[in-house]
RNA sequence: CGGGGCGUAGUAUAGUGGUAGUAUACAUGCUUUGGGAGCAUGAGGUUCGAGUUCGAUUCUCGGCGCCCCGACCA
């Protein structure tokens, strides 16, 4: 895409109503736009990144055996009343609304009840299980106070997978596989080395769960990290019992601040039993179904990447989720330079390399500043130098290193 | 939900009880072109309502909105 056609523009000034690094940088670079407190639109650049993250998650969830679906945001009151979560006393993040005839509805903040309710129509035999269903969808939570840009809003994108299994062994096996998938997702998003599978409290469903915590001073969680084992334990369960269960030793741990980017937990029959979701085994005997929930805050993950990967000039996208693979930047308005850049642009399009082509007639300084801010992982500069040397000047956004190469090997490296 | 703060142009900011200023962004022209260039010209603004006043962007009250701290956060 030509940058002259890009819908958004960069800004020099930080918006006055943002404090968090992710919101400031994403807004300045034209990825998002705040509509109201805790509610952000995703502009073309932001959407590109969001979709890339979603696709990584989709690939990993599919590899786990997950089947994708999309449940509704509008949800029935009676479904939520089954386990008492409609009442504002029990759940205080509801957005509730009404139909014209005064029938009450809620905007989904999660979909546990709804998916179980759905499955009562489809699951009845041991042959139907195990079953792993997931969706990537917008959730609504009426937070009392929003903060941290896109990391804690009232409307956000979440991936939620639900597992339905017959036995504890089946459940545990999947749970362990899911842990690995999750780490893969975070690695592919460029934050694998600072994200830890973290032993955490289980809340109302089971005693313990696992969170995926990314080290960052912008985080709100405190965890204790065992860097050798690559594991951590949340402060909430940082006691003797927790340590023993997690298999961690107090002396091996260091305290860190972190952002929760994912959470997996076993839910037992908390939802399946009340909804009468059972299956019949080989002997025709009625059996309970074990459920598990596996969440990733997709937009929060995007915000986390920005928090963690940036410098004073802008964002530093990891290759896999960079809005474009290459930022092609032409310098000056020398005819031959423009001709060369145009040719390279066309070649990339033909070869299927995703490219943002800064074809604007503005000075080099402005182009470089914008390029740094937007943060595309690889920059290709075409100016007089390239014309003379017949070499391509490639700058890596992350390391800042510039290398020379020729078009052929560049294409070979980036062609998908 | 408790406490505190703030609403002036697209953005960021001055200032004032009596015609609202700067930067940036935008438009036009000329110059310039490897790290946010220069000159000229132009267009663009006081969150809403009520009150006080001859007169309110400014003072008072209320609404709405936004931000921060805390609480909360399957």
UniProtKB/TrEMBL annotation:
It catalyses: tRNA(Pro) + L-proline + ATP = L-prolyl-tRNA(Pro) + AMP + diphosphate. SUPFAM superfamilies: Class II aaRS ABD-related, Class II aaRS and biotin synthetases. Pfam families: HGTP_anticodon, tRNA-synt_2b. GO terms for cellular component: cytoplasm. The keyword Nucleotide-binding applies. It comes from the Bacteria. Its EC number is 6.1.1.15. One of its GO terms (molecular function) is ATP binding. Residues 5-318 form the Aminoacyl-transfer RNA synthetases class-II family profile domain. InterPro entries: aa-tRNA-synt_IIb (IPR002314), aa-tRNA-synth_II (IPR006195), aa-tRNA-synth_II/BPL/LPL (IPR045864), Anticodon-bd (IPR004154), Anticodon-bd_dom_sf (IPR036621), Pro-tRNA-ligase_IIa (IPR002316), Pro-tRNA_synthetase (IPR050062), ProRS_anticodon_short (IPR044140). GO terms for biological process: prolyl-tRNA aminoacylation. Keywords: Aminoacyl-tRNA synthetase, ATP-binding, Ligase, Nucleotide-binding, Protein biosynthesis. It is an enzyme of class 6 (ligase). This is Proline--tRNA ligase. The lineage of its organism: Bacteria, Candidatus Zambryskiibacteriota.
């Amino acid at each position: 895409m030509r940058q002259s056609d890009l819908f958004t523009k960069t800004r020099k000034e930080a918006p006055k109503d943002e404090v968090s690094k992710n919101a400031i940088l994403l807004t300045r670079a034209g990825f998002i736009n705040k509509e109201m407190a805790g509610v952000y639109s995703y502009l073309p650049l932001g959407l590109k990144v969001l979709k890339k993250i979603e696709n990584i998650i989709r690939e990993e969830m599919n590899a786990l055996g997950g089947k994708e679906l999309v449940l509704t945001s509008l949800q029935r009151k009676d479904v939520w009343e089954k386990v008492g979560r409609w009442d504002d006393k029990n759940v205080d993040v509801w957005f509730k609304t009404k139909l014209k005839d005064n029938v009450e509805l809620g905007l989904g903040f999660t979909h546990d009840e709804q998916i179980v309710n759905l499955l009562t129509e489809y699951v009845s035999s041991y042959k139907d299980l195990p079953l792993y269903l997931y969706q990537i969808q917008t959730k609504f939570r009426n937070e009392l106070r929003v903060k941290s840009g896109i990391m804690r809003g009232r409307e956000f994108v979440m991936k939620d997978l639900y597992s339905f299994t017959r036995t504890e062994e089946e459940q545990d096996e999947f749970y362990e596989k899911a842990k690995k998938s999750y780490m893969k997702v975070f690695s592919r998003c460029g934050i694998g080395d600072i994200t830890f599978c973290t032993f955490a409290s289980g809340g109302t469903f089971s005693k313990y769960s696992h969170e995926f915590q990314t080290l960052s001073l912008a985080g709100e969680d405190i965890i204790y990290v065992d860097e050798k084992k690559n594991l951590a334990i949340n402060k909430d369960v940082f006691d003797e019992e927790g340590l023993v269960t997690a298999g961690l030793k107090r002396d091996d741990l260091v305290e860190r601040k972190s952002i929760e980017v994912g959470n997996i937990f076993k839910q037992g029959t908390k939802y399946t039993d009340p909804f009468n979701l059972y299956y019949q085994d080989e002997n025709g005997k009625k059996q309970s179904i074990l459920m598990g929930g596996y969440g990733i805050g997709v937009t929060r993950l995007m915000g986390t990447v920005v928090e963690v990967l940036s410098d004073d000039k802008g964002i530093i996208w990891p290759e896999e989720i960079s809005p474009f693979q290459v930022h092609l930047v032409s310098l000056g308005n020398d005819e031959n330079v423009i001709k060369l850049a145009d040719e390279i642009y066309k070649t990339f399009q033909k070869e299927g390399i995703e490219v943002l082509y800064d074809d604007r007639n503005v000075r080099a300084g402005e182009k470089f500043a914008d390029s740094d801010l937007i943060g595309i992982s690889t920059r290709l500069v075409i100016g007089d130098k390239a014309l003379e040397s017949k070499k391509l000047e490639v700058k890596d956004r992350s390391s800042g290193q510039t290398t020379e190469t020729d078009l052929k090997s560049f294409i070979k490296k980036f062609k998908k």
